[in-house]
């Protein structure tokens, strides 16, 4: 039905179920659809020319706003905690406190750096941040069909917004839930706002934002995009959900993680740096 679902990167445990969900969503119409997407390594690329692309945190960590001593410490944290994040032999329960530890320590270090708000745009401009191939089609199609896009990220909201603003796709149908920086009156970072969002508490984050989902209650059909098993709970705040189609990018540690991804995501995209499949699904739905 959708040609791109035969792409070599596509894996599905139950293609028949995918077909049924898609048919049901088409029947309901695109005015009943909302999209909820993770940001880092879902809307952005995992690698380009064999080199890892940065997350929101990495964009800042690698910038010249951070002292070399602090860079070392942030790198050490990354080298300690990222392998835990993608370790398929540990349960989410086991990883959760360690992820809180990672985010908390990293944010503490960032706050010590007296980062200036007015320099963030330049940092993003000179970074290696890269949205996935096909991002213009993705964002523009959603705008053209007035389909709301919620970007739900455990990254840094100020950086994320700047990435999509500079790519000229921060349209009015886009809403962001993320960790936002809090600046003092002279524009220097003093803390992060509100409850911390890390990769395993997106459910709690969603439930704190009932107002958003209440506004979208006429859109019970959800297209969810993620790259972590923690992203599966991003739609937990959706009211009276009718259908959900979950598309997961499997970027790293592919063989170990494939079984669990196939169990939880309807469509798994293995080492696929493009938005070709999500775009094909959107074309089909609109
Ligand atoms: O947007 P998303 O929810 O994917 O953002 C979370 C990602 O940020 C995680 O996958 C994690 O690897 C990364 N991260 C990071 N540096 C930190 C904390 C998280 O690169 N200090
Ligand atoms: Mg991610």
TrEMBL record:
Keyword Transcription regulation belongs to the record? no
**GO terms, biological process:** nucleotide metabolic process
Tell me the keywords, alphabetical order: Cytoplasm, Hydrolase, Magnesium, Metal-binding, Nucleotide metabolism, Nucleotide-binding
Say what the protein does: Specifically hydrolyzes 7-methylguanosine monophosphate (m(7)GMP) to 7-methylguanosine and inorganic phosphate. The specific activity for m(7)GMP may protect cells against undesired salvage of m(7)GMP and its incorporation into nucleic acids. Also has weak activity for CMP. UMP and purine nucleotides are poor substrates.
Question: Which top class of enzyme applies to this chain?
Answer: hydrolase
What catalytic activity does the UniProt entry give for this protein?
A: N(7)-methyl-GMP + H2O = N(7)-methylguanosine + phosphate; CMP + H2O = cytidine + phosphate; a ribonucleoside 5'-phosphate + H2O = a ribonucleoside + phosphate
Q: What InterPro entries does UniProt report for this protein, alphabetically?
A: HAD-like_sf, HAD_sf, Pyrimidine_nucleotidase_eu
Would the keyword Nucleus be found if you checked this record's keyword annotation? no
Q: What is this protein called?
A: 5'-nucleotidase
Q: Report the EC number(s), separated by commas if there are several.
A: 3.1.3.5
Which cellular components does GO assign to this protein? cytoplasm
- What domain of life is recorded for the organism? Eukaryota
Q: Which organism is it from?
A: Xyrichtys novacula (Pearly razorfish)
